[in-house]
């Protein structure tokens, strides 16, 4: 009986270890090659914690099998730091050229009142006034001349009153509404451009910002979303061990949507990474990537940049504020020559995303453009 228990213990330990290593491998494999594998990235945090518990159990039993979870936990430690941080680092008082950067998917400024809150746009303006970022990257930026408070000129005037110069690229449906992304800066914007993703409604923009003689390029990105509808959430909420035909069809549709989004995001990330690498200036990369830190998209977008959450974040840092478990899908990356401090996830209910911000310290020496 004891031998059977040991065999089962070994098998379970190996399965969990292999599962963790497989989930970690998704960062290296494009969904174009194996798109279903990308789903395993969502399981990484749970698998890592389960393997930690297995390690503790083997240590308590003084089992030599502890070497298995110990090895896989050590190999995945770097990826775990993308997911969880114990404590953040506050900005020093003697910073050289501090710049506060914020990224926020506004969910159209709650135009359709999904939040159930009253006067959400006014609350967002008050929030921005209080936080006072130097640069803001908005995704799902929205204007409409059909509703008070959303008119393009009103919106621009409100932000101008807060001290922001304005850059905006948006899709216009020709019926008085605009949807897209926008970057606001208190520093001069000396150049700008857009990076559309073919037929997708998602896109990216860049803004070259002159900060006291130092030019940096801000990339504001909104990558493809899964596009879950109310019915998809209902299917997830109603899942049981035994599924009926309707639930099975619902799961197939959900997997199809996720696979399609994985493919589109990977292509978009590859396009953006080339632009980031070829930037003539040091970069700050912000946005809603719609993917987790254990993903091909995250690794491709980050490249050799620093992740502000890793530098000074705390906890799991989930930025999704919806019906699914909170995942970190919004990011601020920056050039390795910069330092960042005081990363914050602002727990507001304005949107289905939490705003994030960090304070970036630019390098002391003057920035000069590299040859493209």
Automatic annotation (TrEMBL):
Any GO BP annotation: DNA repair
Pfam families: Exo_endo_phos (PF03372)
Keywords from the UniProt entry: DNA damage, DNA repair, Endonuclease, Exonuclease, Hydrolase, Magnesium, Membrane, Metal-binding, Nuclease, Transmembrane, Transmembrane helix
Gene Ontology molecular function: endonuclease activity; exonuclease activity; metal ion binding
Transmembrane portions of the chain: 7-30, 36-60
InterPro entries for this protein: Endo/exonu/phosph_ase_sf (IPR036691), Endo/exonuclease/phosphatase (IPR005135), TDP2-like (IPR051547)
Cofactor(s) it depends on: Mg(2+); Mn(2+)
UniProt superkingdom: Bacteria
Gene3D superfamilies in the cross-refs: Endonuclease/exonuclease/phosphatase
Domain Endonuclease/exonuclease/phosphatase intervals: 102-353
Protein name: Endonuclease/exonuclease/phosphatase family metal-dependent hydrolase
Organism whose genome encodes this protein: Marinilabilia salmonicolor
């Amino acid at each position: 009986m004891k031998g059977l228990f040991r065999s089962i213990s070994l098998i379970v330990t190996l399965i969990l270890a292999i599962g963790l290593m497989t989930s970690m491998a998704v960062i290296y494999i494009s969904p174009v090659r194996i798109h279903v594998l990308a789903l395993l990235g969502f399981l990484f945090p749970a698998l890592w914690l389960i393997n930690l518990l297995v390690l503790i159990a083997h240590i308590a039993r003084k089992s030599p099998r502890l070497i298995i979870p110990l090895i896989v936990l050590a190999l995945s430690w770097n990826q775990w730091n993308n997911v969880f941080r114990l404590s953040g680092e506050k900005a020093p008082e003697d910073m050289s050229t501090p710049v506060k950067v914020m990224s926020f998917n506004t969910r159209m400024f709650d135009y359709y009142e999904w939040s159930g809150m009253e006067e959400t746009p006014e609350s967002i303006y008050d929030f921005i006034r209080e936080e006072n970022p130097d640069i803001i990257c908005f995704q799902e930026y929205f204007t409409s001349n059909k509703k008070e408070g959303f008119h393009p000129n009103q919106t621009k005037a409100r932000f101008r009153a807060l001290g922001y110069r304005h850059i905006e690229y948006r899709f216009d449906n020709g019926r008085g509404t605009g949807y897209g992304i926008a970057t606001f800066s208190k520093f001069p914007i000396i150049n700008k451009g857009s990076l559309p993703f073919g037929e997708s409604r998602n896109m990216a923009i860049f803004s070259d910002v002159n900060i006291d003689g130092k030019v940096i390029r801000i990339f504001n990105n909104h990558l493809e979303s899964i596009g879950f509808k109310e019915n998809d959430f209902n299917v997830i909420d109603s899942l049981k061990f035994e599924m009926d035909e309707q639930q099975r069809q619902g799961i197939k549709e959900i997997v199809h949507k996720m696979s399609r989004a994985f493919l589109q995001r990977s292509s978009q990330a590859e396009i953006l990474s080339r632009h980031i690498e070829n930037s003539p200036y040091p970069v700050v990369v912000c946005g809603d990537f719609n993917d987790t830190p254990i993903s091909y998209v995250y690794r491709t977008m980050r490249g050799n940049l620093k992740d502000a959450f890793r530098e000074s974040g705390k906890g799991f840092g989930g930025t999704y504020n919806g019906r699914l478990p909170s995942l970190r899908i919004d990011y601020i990356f920056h050039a390795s020559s910069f330092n960042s401090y005081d990363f914050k996830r602002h727990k507001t209910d304005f949107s289905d995303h939490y705003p994030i911000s960090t304070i970036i310290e630019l390098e002391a020496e003057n920035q000069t453009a590299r040859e493209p």
